[in-house]
Amino acid sequence: MELPIGSAALRVHLPPAADDPGPPPALLPANPSIPYGLFHDADLFAAFRGLLLHLWTLWELMVVGEPVLVVAPSPPQCSEAVAGLVSLVAPLLYSVDFRPYFTIHDPDFARLNALAEGEVFPPMVLGVTNLFFLKSLKSIPNVVSVGSPNPNSTRVLPVGGQSPGSGNGINGTPGKLKLDKLAINKFSPTGLLNSIKLRREGPLSLMTEHKEALWSTYVPTTKPDTSVLNRLIDAGVSPRIEESMSVVNNEILRRHFLELTTNFLAPFGPYLRTTTPSEGSSPFVDPPLLPPFHADEFVNGLAARGAGKFLSKRMKSNWLELYRRFLEGPNFMPWFRQRRAAAEQEQQRLWRQARMNVDIEKLMSKLSELERIDSFNAIERYLLREMENSRTGATESETVSQKLKGDLRAAFSVLPKDMQQLLLSNPKRAVLLQGSNKEIPELDGIISQTSL
């Protein structure tokens, strides 16, 4: 929709409903390698450049629907960070309430501020700049601080405190973004002390000095993939090169988290898999139902099969707990219902197409008398459904109806005479079979006898 603001118009895409079976065209990104989702153009690299090693923990927090408070020095920075978090779990559509810029004037502030000590904070992602929220919303279990106090400086050091030129090539040309591997693989007394101090002070330390950090009570399962981080490029000091390199880095990060999310969701595939009629079988039967889903059976089966090659390399031994939390969280059911509805819709389309392509005479020649009668009844049922759809303006249903009318007459022609007379005792059915008497020479006589 477009919102007029003064002499300008702000064009916005509204998030789809949770029960929408398919993505609206407006939400499809221009780049086909980017999955369908919200905020696929958010600058992940710029927003979380100082917290790259924490991206995998943030991904988990979003997957399971944990409440997160995003603190930044300015509204644009906190809004970009919230948008980046929401987009991090694509193609999983994020279903939790998120506010890119939350203020004390928001109507929900009074409710959140009144939460009693020990009361569970509702699943929300709030982007804020007012440090007052660190005290008023102290029950929120996950706080991430992002951005730079200087709005003109987007060059935030990643890990380990390198100098601004440490990752660059000669004369400020782009080079590899060198991550300090001491932060992962080796013990560092200084790093340990800083980490302890940061944890002890907690988010309230932002009251005296802004710093990029993550405070969380959540125990992550996924390990940072340093091979991905080592592919990122440091852009040097040129703003023009900075922008172009950010595009490259965002593509690297998005591809990885798309692959991570896709592999995480892959075990649900059998519950969303469509079928088509087997060769030689009749498409005039109801398509089989999709397999029923039971959370306990799913978890037990997953425990027996294992995490799979991709996830086993990137997750710790408690990976099954992540699935349990996802199933119990606010994101699973809206996503599963939407995908389930889309799968059922696709299966109906495939079977409808099979009915359009079937050679009815060849099919009938292979069926027994009882199967022919069942097929006639099924064709009639589908024909009536398509005729109803055509009345509502579905143009494709008119074409399908014409094909099914011919199939109905062909199925009628191979039935025994006594069965034909019985079927034609229904006036509405007789009307369906009229109109092409050349194919069934005796039809006029049968209808006349029935009318008498």
From TrEMBL:
A single GO cellular-component term on record: recycling endosome
On the tree of life, the source organism's domain of life is Eukaryota
Q: Where would I find the UDENN domain in this sequence?
A: 1-338
GO MF terms on file? guanyl-nucleotide exchange factor activity
Coiled coil region boundaries: none
Q: Which family does it belong to?
A: Belongs to the DENND6 family.
Kindly provide the name given to this protein in its UniProt entry: UDENN domain-containing protein
